[in-house]
């Protein structure tokens, strides 16, 4: 059986998830030149929001078709609240402060969010099982698709299309583009930049929430630490695609996901590297890819939309 | 929405410049209350505060103070002295070169907070206020009276700032709040002190020695506190007491004196630190001492990277880990795959060199880019280092680091026949294993301080600061940005590696889990960064103080337990919001963060 199509699909799925989270990084970065390190934790709180809806709000045995949209909404509400709160109370007062200040704030925020979930969410001290969609795996030729993956397969392109429409066609979206290009001029043209920044944070959180629900379906469990490594990967994806470029984020995510999957699957076949192919090395390969990209094409695959003003 | 055309009424706040207290007690009465309260506080500490010795520290005795009462006694003495100084008692004028009023406010606050904390702790722990003796009621009353009295002391109010008529209700609320906050801040602020008289050099040095002796005593006391309540009391009194002395101008004068004799001060500080093991009777607190030193040294190394060059390194602990692993691999440990036993100097070189190599490998691709990339790449590197060390166990990778079990059984050091693992008797004092390592670590700290000072003042150090302040301008001035940044990064990495080589021997075992991004035990990358930020970026004293605090607080306050990291994260956010320059601010940085508020006065000062 030819394994390659299966690996490519796995990589595509993993990559779409990275891409969904990467959008949050890239959008905020494009507008305020801030790496929102806490974005991984916003993703994590989204997953717990979805879990809360399913376990504590909906009655037992609710059909997944009914539960899924409600879980998504729950995840989005939690993630957006956290993101907008962080923007309002932690980042906004630091606008104009030296570059290090918001970065350090972000680290503190990310630790505090992780620990808050760990300490206060019921039984969150170890991983919690995430509800699954019933139904057996689907076979398409050589490729097997798990039921949980179907959600991601539909949600990722859909989210992307919605985002593209929003940024290109709506008034607010064009305001975002203007703010990203030149905040001062945008302000003079009547764009409420404060509002745009809040919207960027909120939109990023919405996509992170979709990604979080997808994560839950894919891996079957969530824990308070899931945001750290995934956030790191998503940022890598954003850099890979060209930070500040929302299409780049999705493409970077997919490239990273496929590269990671192929690395774990095939690196062991390279003579001399037979011990480096297992899943435990996947993060290392993703990181090496990041270093290589920074070395060879620091502006990312699609190039940065926003010129470096510093 | 209607536009408001009439000018809004400003609240009937007193106009700027009028001297009036924060609360409406006449100032002479307030001063008398504060000073008298100080005297009575001293008296109260000699009385019993509770009837049972169930509360630690034995506060049941009439006739002498114990435990937390001693701290209150110190606070009371400070209040009395400052109170007398504020009356203009000539022999005490040295205590308050910048005026005693603001200092008195902080001193009474320190005493008030410590006393009330003690009384609340007694009531909460023993179940109700019935457990209090009259002494406690007296102490509570007089410290409150003293604090209220001090608040009545007059101060210069800031000029009122009228509303913008277009403001929404929320904005207006924010505006009034900030206005009130400004007033409170003004109540607690003091003028700059009168210049120090020129004293003969021996007198200066005597003052420095006295200051260092006080610092050593305070530090030793803090390390030696035996129960949570005493440590909290210590933090309250030390924090507010220090602020009081700072407001009185005494600290500023002392730092001016130390600035005159920098080498003496640095030498003296190391001497004072070296005396620490001799003040201890067993090795218990020397253990804390050596861990604080490791943490502080690594934080100081990070301060070169973050504080001087402005490069945010979020995986710094990985360089410590590289150094520790490198040293342990050549230490002759049975779990090391290499059957070699290098002498210490060679192990140090190997450790520092390994970290240097990794520093350059990580730095070279990223330092050409915007600084944000460095932050994320170092964060990734810190994580990858841990994963790799976990994987190199012979099954999921080549056998090098023994996986999650780590390299165990690292032998104790032996330098020139001096065995670090055994006790030694020096001049009648017993120096245990950890005290031995304390001295070695102190030497490493001295090296790092030396590197920091010499490089900071050199051409390259000034280039670092220039890059940190404005990279574009620095490049335009002909600084080779990439090269200079890479040097900073590599120097920082190798200093961490240096500290790592000693750490490996102190802890016997090196495991990947010691080098997390964020964990409950320092040093880890988040705590290191916090130590630098809390203490003050770009200074030597800052990271040392920050590391000591960040090590002692989790170590002493067991009740924080699970919430420690949460509190730590929130503290980081609040710190960045309200005091981004840290406890010991670098002068240039303080200007940078409070540009609009302080620039004119400082310009005046430099002109003078």
Automatic annotation (TrEMBL), chain A:
Where is the chain membrane-spanning?
12-35, 42-59, 65-86, 98-121, 150-168, 196-216, 222-240, 247-268, 280-296
Tell me the membrane topology, using the record's own terms: Multi-pass membrane protein
Keywords, alphabetical: Amino-acid transport, Cell inner membrane, Cell membrane, Membrane, Transmembrane, Transmembrane helix, Transport
What Pfam family is a match for this entry?
A: BPD_transp_2
Compartments in which it is found: Cell membrane
Spell out the family assignment given in the record's similarity comment: Belongs to the binding-protein-dependent transport system permease family. LivHM subfamily.
The name this protein carries in UniProt is Branched-chain amino acid ABC transporter permease
Q: Which organism is it from?
A: Streptomyces ziwulingensis
From TrEMBL, chain B:
Q: Which UniProt keywords apply?
A: Cell membrane, Membrane, Transmembrane, Transmembrane helix
Which sequence ranges are marked TM in the entry? 32-51, 71-94, 106-130, 136-155, 201-224, 230-250, 262-279, 285-306, 311-330, 342-364, 371-389, 434-452, 486-506, 526-553, 560-578
Keyword check for Transmembrane: yes
InterPro entries annotated for this entry? ABC_transp_permease (IPR001851), LivM-like (IPR043428)
Subcellular localization: Cell membrane
Principal localization reads: membrane
Q: Tell me the protein's name.
A: Branched-chain amino acid ABC transporter permease
């Amino acid at each position: 059986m030819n394994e390659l199509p299966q690996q490519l699909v796995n990589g595509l799925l993993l990559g779409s998830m990275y891409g969904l989270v990467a959008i949050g990084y890239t959008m905020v970065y494009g507008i305020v030149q801030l790496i929102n390190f806490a974005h991984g934790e916003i993703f994590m709180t989204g997953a717990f929001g979805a879990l809360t809806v399913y376990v504590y709000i909906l009655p037992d045995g609710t059909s997944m078709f009914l539960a899924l949209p409600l879980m998504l909404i729950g995840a989005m509400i939690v993630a957006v609240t956290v993101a907008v709160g962080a923007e309002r109370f932690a980042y906004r007062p630091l606008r104009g402060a030296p570059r290090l200040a918001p970065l350090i704030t972000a680290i503190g925020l990310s630790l505090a969010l992780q620990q808050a979930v760990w300490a206060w969410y019921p039984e969150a001290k170890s991983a919690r099982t995430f509800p699954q969609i019933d139904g057996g795996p689907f076979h398409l030729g050589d490729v097997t698709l798990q039921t949980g993956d179907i959600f991601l397969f539909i949600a990722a392109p859909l989210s992307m299309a919605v985002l593209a429409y929003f940024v290109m066609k709506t008034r607010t979206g064009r305001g975002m583009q203007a703010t990203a290009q030149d905040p001062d001029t945008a302000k003079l043209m009547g764009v409420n930049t404060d509002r745009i920044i809040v919207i960027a944070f909120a939109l990023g959180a919405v996509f992170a929430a979709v990604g979080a629900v997808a994560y839950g379906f894919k891996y079957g469990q969530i824990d308070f630490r899931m945001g750290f490594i995934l956030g790191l990967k998503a940022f890598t994806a954003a850099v890979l695609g060209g930070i500040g470029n929302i299409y780049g984020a999705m493409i970077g995510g997919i490239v990273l996901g496929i590269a990671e999957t192929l690395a774990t699957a095939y690196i062991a076949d390279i003579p001399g590297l037979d011990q480096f192919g297992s899943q435990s090395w996947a993060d290392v390969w993703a990181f090496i890819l990041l270093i290589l990209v920074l070395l060879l094409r620091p502006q990312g695959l699609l190039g940065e939309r926003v010129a470096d003003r510093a | 929405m209607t536009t408001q055309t009439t000018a809004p009424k400003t609240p009937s706040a007193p106009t700027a410049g009028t001297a009036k207290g924060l609360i409406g007690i006449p100032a002479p009465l307030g001063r008398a209350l504060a000073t008298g309260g100080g005297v009575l506080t001293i008296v109260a500490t000699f009385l019993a505060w509770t009837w049972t010795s169930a509360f630690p520290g034995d506060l049941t005795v009439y006739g002498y103070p114990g435990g937390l009462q001693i701290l209150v006694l110190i606070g009371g003495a400070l209040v009395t002295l400052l109170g007398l100084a504020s009356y203009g008692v000539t022999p005490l004028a040295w205590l308050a070169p910048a005026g005693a009023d603001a200092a008195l406010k902080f001193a009474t606050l320190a005493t008030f907070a410590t006393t009330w904390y003690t009384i609340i702790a007694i009531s909460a722990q023993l179940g109700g206020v019935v457990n209090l003796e009259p002494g406690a009621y007296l102490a509570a009353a007089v410290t409150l009276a003293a604090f209220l009295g001090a608040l009545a002391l007059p101060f210069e109010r800031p000029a009122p700032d009228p509303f913008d008529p277009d403001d929404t209700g929320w904005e207006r609320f924010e505006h009034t709040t900030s206005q009130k906050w400004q007033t409170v801040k003004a109540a607690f602020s003091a003028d700059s002190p009168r210049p120090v008289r020129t004293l003969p050099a021996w007198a200066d040095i005597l003052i420095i020695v006295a200051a260092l002796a006080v610092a050593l005593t305070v530090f030793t006391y803090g390390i030696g506190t035996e129960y949570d309540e005493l440590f909290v009391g210590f933090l309250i009194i030390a924090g507010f007491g220090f602020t009081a002395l700072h407001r009185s101008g005494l600290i500023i004068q002392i730092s001016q004196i130390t600035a005159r004799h920098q080498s003496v001060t640095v030498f003296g500080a190391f001497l004072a630190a070296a005396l620490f093991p001799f003040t201890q009777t067993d090795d218990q607190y020397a253990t804390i001492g050596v861990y604080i030193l490791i943490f502080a040294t690594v934080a100081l190394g990070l301060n070169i990277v973050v504080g001087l060059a402005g490069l945010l390194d979020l995986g710094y602990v990985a360089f410590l880990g590289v150094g520790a692993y490198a040293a342990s691999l050549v230490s002759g440990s049975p779990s090391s795959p290499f059957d070699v036993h290098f002498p210490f100097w060679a192990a140090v070189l190997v450790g520092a060199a390994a970290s240097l190599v990794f520093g350059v490998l990580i730095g070279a691709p990223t330092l050409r880019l915007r600084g944000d990339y460095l932050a994320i790449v170092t964060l990734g590197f810190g994580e990858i280092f841990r994963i790799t060390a976990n994987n190199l166990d012979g099954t999921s990778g080549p056998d090098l680091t023994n996986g999650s079990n780590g390299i165990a059984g690292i032998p104790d050091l032996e330098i020139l026949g001096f065995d670090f693992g055994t006790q030694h008797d020096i001049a009648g004092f017993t120096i245990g294993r950890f005290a031995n390592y304390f001295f070695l670590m102190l030497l490493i700290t001295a090296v790092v301080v030396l590197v920091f000072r010499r490089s900071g003042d050199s051409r390259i150090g000034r280039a670092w600061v220039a890059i940190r302040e404005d990279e574009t301008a620095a490049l335009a001035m002909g600084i080779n940005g990439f090269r200079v940044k890479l040097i900073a990064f590599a120097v920082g990495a190798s200093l961490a590696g240096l500290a790592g080589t000693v750490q490996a021997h102190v802890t016997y075992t090196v495991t990947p889990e010691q080098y997390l991004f964020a964990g409950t035990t320092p040093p880890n990358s988040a705590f290191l960064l916090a130590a630098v930020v809390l203490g003050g970026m770009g200074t030597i004293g800052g990271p040392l103080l920050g590391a000591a605090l960040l090590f002692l607080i989790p170590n002493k306050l067991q009740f924080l337990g699970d919430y420690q990291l949460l509190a730590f994260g929130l503290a980081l956010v609040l710190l960045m919001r309200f005091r981004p320059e840290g406890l010991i601010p670098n002068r240039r940085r303080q200007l940078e963060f409070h540009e609009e508020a302080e620039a004119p006065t400082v310009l005046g000062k430099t002109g003078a």
